[in-house]
Design goal:
single chain; globular; seven-stranded mixed sheet; 17 helices; alpha/beta; Spore Coat Polysaccharide Biosynthesis Protein SpsA, Chain A
Length: 367
């Protein structure tokens, strides 16, 4: 048997955070139901949130309340494995895996159950889904506070063989921001339950649609900036009709703690310091016809530490709802940029970008 665990922790109390939490709960519930159909047993929902508990329970999960304060992923997972005497586990954060099929999950379970010492993940550098056997390997590692570095520690410290899932929108998409949610609902394989939820289309549709046309149009150029990994570059080379200008910086920034330590550095950050917000976006417009911008690298370089609510409001170009200061000025300049622009976090230049390209070709099937 292989246990399946969905973790959910609520964000802040603001309206935009609560709306995003609603999307994550819905995704977690769908993924849990598919894991059940794929043969995982037992099923657990790890949360102390009443709304999430009710939704995950409806999909067949036993609810386990997390106990650490502040929340510590590794300690929670270790406790559950010990108390429930689990042999093999697959863990995922609510928000990830919305496009994973029952067949995908069944294949993952079968591979784990035919291996003696293996860790599978969607991304070994910054994981959202981690499956491993034996579960006792967790006793041999420094327990991570988040799930992101778990595969590397199980490989490097516990000696498990490590394999990443095949890269795709399904394996890489983790809805962390409003932009991610807005792109998910454009994908033809998006579950109907999610497509019917409000996902900021009223705000972002006029930006998404020209970018989808751009990636299927020869002689156009797209700027992609942020924590871009090699698999995304390979995908872009074969799956976009447009040219792509890639500015890849600070991959693994959060997992390495470079954002919180102040060590993160960005070429775009140096440019922004010299140019200021409006000239910065004017110069980005000279590099391409549209842009996907993982802004968290820039924020870390500049030493900005906006709250989750402020980051999301910036992603939605709602400068007037951000307190006066540099982030508000940045967001106002981004809103006035003379080209289609989407902003977000790491997923925007990974799984969400992959999702957008697949959705674009689904709507534009010409060669």
């Amino acid at each position: 048997m292989t246990a399946f665990l969905v973790f959910f922790g609520r964000g802040g109390p603001s309206a935009v955070e609560r709306q995003l939490d609603g999307v994550k709960i819905a995704i977690g519930t769908i993924v849990l139901a598919r894991a059940r159909d794929a043969g995982f047993v037992p099923l657990y929902g790890v949360t102390h949130d009443d709304e999430a508990a009710a939704a995950l329970r409806s999909a067949g999960a036993e609810i386990l309340a997390d106990r650490t304060e502040p929340f510590h992923f590794g300690q929670e997972l270790s406790r559950i494995i010990r108390e429930r005497t689990l042999d093999r586990v697959c863990t995922i954060g609510a928000g990830a895996g919305a496009l994973l099929t029952t067949k995908d999950l069944a294949a993952l379970r079968e591979e784990l159950e035919t291996s003696e010492a293996l860790v599978l993940s969607n991304n070994s550098y910054s994981a959202d889904l981690v499956a491993f056997s034996p579960a006792s390997a967790l006793d041999a590692i420094d327990l991570p506070a988040t799930d992101n570095p778990l595969p590397r520690r199980l490989h490097q410290q516990a000696g498990l063989s490590s394999r990443q899932m095949e890269k795709s929108a399904a394996s890489l998409l983790d809805v962390d921001t409003p932009t991610d949610a807005a792109l998910l609902v454009r994908h033809p394989a998006c579950p109907d339950e999610l497509r019917e939820m409000p996902a900021w289309q009223d705000i972002l549709a006029d930006r998404i649609e020209p970018l989808m046309r751009l990636v299927t149009t020869p002689d156009k150029e797209l700027v992609v900036a942020g924590r871009v990994g090699a698999p995304v570059w390979t995908f872009i080379e074969s799956q976009t009709a447009c040219r792509v200008r890639m500015l890849a910086e600070e991959r693994g920034m959060q997992a390495a703690g470079r954002d919180s330590s102040g060590e993160a550095r960005s070429a775009l950050g140096f440019l922004y310091e010299r140019a200021g917000p409006r000239e910065f976006f004017a110069e980005m417009g000279e590099l391409g016809d549209g842009m996907l911008f993982d802004t968290r690298v820039l924020f870390a370089h500049l030493g900005w530490r906006p709250s989750a609510e402020e980051r999301f409001l910036s992603d939605l170009f709602q400068a007037e709802r951000i307190a006066a200061g540099p982030l508000r000025d940045f967001t106002a300049a981004a809103r006035e940029a003379p080209f289609p622009l989407l902003m977000g976090g790491h997923t925007l230049v990974s799984g969400a970008f992959w999702t957008m390209v697949e959705a674009a070709w689904a709507g534009h099937p010409e060669e």
